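FORM 12-B: Structure-to-Sequence Request
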């Protein structure tokens, strides 16, 4: 047996050098405490505390964070987002949209208004057209993760909440399509006409085909399991993560695939079935990690490059969504008060915006760098501001069944 070379193998070396896991764990402990301070003392949604902890960790730990650690957080962001998109797709009722077409018109109108207004004003401010158009498309999105987290934490139920979930799902689809079409235009701007035509077509057709296959296969497996089996949700989680991996291997659109897979999965049954109670719990920790992680990459340089544009984007985005819903929302059966509440609640932005921005940045760094600066600054503002406005909107509509003190953010576990 070989002898040990020295005591250094048995005892820690000084000075202590904790690895990335130590700092991630510390950030999560800080996020949990910040979330409870928001809930108990400030009467705000916990998710604001998580975002604040992520921004603080990113600022204070700038020397510790490296590219490898940031790249690893992308995996967690993808996983949290995949679970939320699939769940939101499962909650979207095509039958309801057919019966209430004004809801679809309202969604399309507020999305087009948001895109057009943001893109036009950013260009007027001097932002490059490609970056302005892409930023406008990303601004259309409403965060599925934060919307679901708020619904569960506040135990919100009612017409405004149901429309919020539907519009968040539709906005996610619109944003993904707009960014894909804008990326196709970027291909032509960079001189690649073949990619300009074929890439968006491949993404749209391929994502729809994969979503159909995943939804069908997932339902065939899930339908054979006991409906009251507490472990059957593991099949769904595994299915979603498998679909996520396939979108990366095939280079398809993750938002479109997972959202549409949820829709296909739901509509295999004539009778709607209850969403698995533990599915939200499975994604709850991932959502916290995601929100914390989104604050880590932000630097002072990003604020210098994109800070002013981000502030304008946030103001225009909220104004456009509120105006769009107030203009047409009454035709879908909402009162003016409910329209205002829904317009306020559509504000959250999070992982989906980051994912769409990252996809562009990987393809075209020259366009992606200024776009990333604007979107990262926008997320820093929106993750602190938008959940508070959304919670205010749901309370204004009278749909919050229990205060923050009663919710624990654990999916459908209530």
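FORM 12-B RESPONSE
SEQUENCE OUT:
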């Amino acid at each position: 047996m070989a002898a040990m070379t020295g005591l250094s193998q048995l005892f820690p070396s000084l000075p202590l050098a904790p690895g990335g896991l130590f700092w991630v764990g510390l950030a999560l402990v800080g996020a949990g405490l910040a979330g409870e301070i928001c809930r108990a003392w400030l009467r705000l949604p916990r998710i604001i505390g998580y975002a604040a902890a992520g921004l603080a960790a990113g600022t204070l730990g700038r020397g510790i964070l490296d590219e490898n650690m940031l790249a690893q957080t992308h995996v967690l962001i993808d996983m949290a987002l995949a679970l939320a998109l699939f769940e939101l797709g499962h909650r979207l009722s095509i039958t309801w949209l057919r019966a209430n077409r004004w809801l679809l018109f309202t969604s399309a109108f507020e999305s087009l208004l948001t895109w057009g207004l943001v893109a036009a004003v950013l260009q007027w401010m001097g932002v490059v057209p490609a970056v302005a158009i892409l930023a406008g498309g990303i601004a259309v999105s409403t965060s599925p993760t934060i919307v679901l987290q708020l619904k569960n934490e506040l135990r919100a139920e009612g017409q405004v909440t149901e429309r919020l979930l539907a519009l968040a799902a539709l906005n996610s689809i619109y944003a993904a399509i707009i960014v894909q079409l804008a990326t196709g235009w970027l291909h032509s701007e960079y001189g690649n006409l073949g990619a300009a035509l074929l890439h968006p077509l491949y993404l749209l057709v391929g994502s729809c085909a994969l979503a159909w296959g995943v939804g069908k296969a997932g339902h065939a497996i899930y339908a054979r399991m006991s409906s009251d089996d507490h472990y059957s949700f593991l099949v769904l989680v595994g299915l979603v993560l498998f679909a996520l991996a396939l979108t990366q291997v095939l280079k398809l659109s993750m938002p479109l695939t997972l959202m549409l897979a949820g829709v296909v999965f739901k509509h295999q049954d004539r009778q709607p079935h209850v969403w698995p109670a533990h599915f939200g719990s499975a994604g709850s920790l991932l959502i916290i990690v995601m929100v914390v992680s989104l604050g880590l990459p932000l630097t002072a340089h990003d604020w210098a490059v994109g800070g002013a544009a981000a502030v304008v984007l946030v103001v225009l985005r909220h104004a456009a969504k509120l105006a769009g819903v107030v203009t047409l929302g009454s035709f879908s059966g909402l009162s003016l008060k409910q329209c205002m509440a829904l317009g306020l609640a559509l504000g959250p932005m999070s992982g989906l915006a980051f994912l769409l921005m990252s996809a562009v940045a990987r393809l075209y760094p020259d366009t992606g760098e200024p776009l990333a600066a604007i979107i990262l600054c926008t997320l820093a503002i929106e993750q602190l501001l938008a959940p508070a406005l959304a919670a205010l909107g749901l309370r204004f509509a009278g749909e919050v069944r229990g205060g923050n003190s009663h919710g624990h953010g654990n999916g459908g576990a209530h």
